Amino acid sequence: GAVVSQHPSRVICKSGTSVKIECRSLDFQATTMFWYRQFPKQSLMLMATSNEGSKATYEQGVEKDKFLINHASLTLSTLTVTSAHPEDSSFYICSARALGGDEQYFGPGTRLTVT
Amino acid sequence: RKEVEQDPGPFNVPEGATVAFNCTYSNSASQSFFWYRQDCRKEPKLLMSVYSSGNEDGRFTAQLNRASQYISLLIRDSKLSDSATYLCVVNPPMLYQLTFGKGTKLSVIP
Q: What are the residues of chain A with a beta carbon less than 8 Å away from any beta carbon of chain B?
């Protein structure tokens, strides 16, 4: 149980384009989903927390107009990186927290390369 | 003081060795504690939750000392497959977010 999927697993895009990443909880309902970013040899950095049906809460320094988050259902959250730049190239990982639980379960991540 | 601090590593140990990782956290009101492992270029995976009474899962033992704000992970009889980065993770009070340590890299050598 507690499986989280992410799509796509890898994407290469040109500078200035937008990329959408999907995060799905497959066998449980996730009231809260989280989006992280991890640069090489760095720890995971929380970007935003998204609750189903409400606006996401962004961490300090994360531009909400650049990283659009939509949590339309209890099993799906999307992150759209708008007007991507090479410095946005990173490993983006989502996680989901089940209702009443403390643990977070992570998706397999999306490796974004902006050329 | 950083919110979650871990041994910097890397730890290079032979197969069969016992290895211990330590972690300290700054928020004394933190409620939940976890160890995750992360393989290279992969997502973190929950290894075990850490309880006040300590808990064991096979070769892995986790301990929590709330007075010292200290968490440990002991791995006995190390296997090659244990090679990974081990992340100490804390759930601050009143928040759903997790706070991650930078991780300690373990390499188990044949």
A: 32, 34, 42-44, 46, 49, 91, 93, 95, 97, 102-109, 111
